[in-house]
Amino acid sequence: MLDDATKERIEQDIASEDVVLYMKGTPVFPQCGFSAAVVGVLTHLGVPFRGINVLDDMAVREGIKAFSDWPTIPQLYVKGEFVGGCDIVREMYETGELTEMFQTRGIDARPEA
Amino acid sequence: MPMPASEIETLIKAAFPDADVVIEDLRGDGDHYACRVVSTAFAGKSRVQQHQMVYKALGGRMGGELHALALQTSAPTSN
User: Fold this and answer.
1) What per-residue confidence (pLDDT) applies to B20?
2) In a designed cystine with A20, which of A48, A77, A113, B55 is the match (CB 3.0 to 4.6 A)?
3) Under an 8 A CB cutoff, do A91 and B60 touch?
4) Is 0.80 surpassed by the pTM of this model?
């Protein structure tokens, strides 16, 4: 279910920052282990991001799943493009692809030693 | 709501007959799984597309009755 108003809002939100994370809870207080895992990865890489709490808005919570054809939260967007959920982010982080992806898109990612 | 691993495997194999499917019940509660799928169907697809294909095979259960399925997909590496 994705009405035009919600779609428009999502499009604006994912364009509002280089890195946008749809999550349950907030970056400071994630309310789901999978959301917390992605926050942990982004924080570890020192990548600034905007967290959008889907628990605040049912239309966005359901709409974002239709928008990306992806059934779960969290969802990571970089420069307006859907990168993946928790599993993909974790896998890309482990292989180093995530850092590389941020860097090639001009986003400063500096993994702590 | 728990869903047996055998059911997950059946659904995935029905969609990807050549697939190697390994499912691990992470907590032994029938609710938290890790699943690795290797299939030629994934060749040339992005990770997002590969996962979407598996979610489609699960017929909308992901995010619903299947809460926690950690997914890892790949095409077979030729050697």
Assistant:
1) 95
2) A77
3) no
4) yes
